């Protein structure tokens, strides 16, 4: 089963932790890793032929230094993966000059090289708006509309994987991606659904006036997700994942499904959360910024979040 991921590296501790995560999850799996470093570009002013002639030696020195730095970062990343136990024959290094920006160049490289996912280290907990507008990792999530993005936020210490479900096509696509990537690993997978609390739609005082309606709502929500869970289980099993690695959990849920997901993952020692780019409640959004997925990303310290 040939699969490969593109890992964006920049020499930072965040990108190094992404390498640690890959090693922990896939050391014994048949996974190839493309390490990618996008070299910084000089400002457009230096594209002027006259300017380049006048500062030729200085520009050549800068470009050489840029390349040497990139090669050193890639070499360090490769050595780190090898020390962590990955076969060096499964690791490739790629040094690319920046064309349209680090995020867009990373997405383009991944498409051209048929990558199954982009892996990137996230920069800790930050406001959601800042994440999606001011970071390379956030910009990669936005520009990578077809290729899943794995955001590694800090030190991930567990191989257990939580697949967050809802009755949507994107959630099922996330299950298919997890089945493809995790079939030959030892990770335990749990299909998880947090029922949407009725108080998200109706004021609590109105619900109190009709107490039976909450129970009716919860029952119907469970009935709605049941066939999706069964379909997801079958997809995982058909990919070769043994039944003893698969479990399911449905919880009543609160007004905040993102908090339900992140809290459950931490309390039950899950290291990875797999989610559809758009869920049932935010499928009209072009990006996951304002939806449940975006809020889970915001609260993902020491977790990896796969945005599919």
The description of the largest β-sheet is: 10 strands, mixed
Tell me which CATH architecture of the largest domain applies here.
3-Layer(aba) Sandwich
Strand order of the largest sheet: 3-2-1-4-5-10-9-6-7-8
Average of pLDDT: 86
Helix content: 40-55%
The CATH topology of the largest domain is given as Rossmann fold
Summarize the helix and strand pattern as letters.
Answer: EHEHHEHEHHEEHEHHEHEHE
User: What gyration radius follows from the Cα positions, in whole Å?
Assistant: 22 Å
What's the overall geometry? elongated
Considering the protein shown, what is the CATH homologous superfamily of the largest domain?
A: HUPs
Q: How far apart are the first and last residues' alpha carbons, in Å? A: 20 Å
DSSP helical segment count: 11
Count of discrete domains: 2
Count of individual beta strands = 10
SSE-based structural type = alpha/beta
> What are the low-pLDDT stretches, counting only 5+ consecutive residues below 50?
124-134, 282-289
Strand content: 15-25%
CATH level 1 name of the largest domain? Alpha Beta
Reconstruct the topology from this structure:
Layout: E1 3-8, H1 13-26, E2 31-39, H2 49-54, H3 56-83, E3 91-97, H4 102-112, E4 117-121, H5 128-134, H6 136-143, E5 149-153, E6 161-164, H7 169-182, E7 189-194, H8 204-208, H9 212-238, E8 246-251, H10 257-267, E9 272-275, H11 292-298, E10 303-307
Helix pairs in contact: 4-6, 5-6, 7-9, 10-11
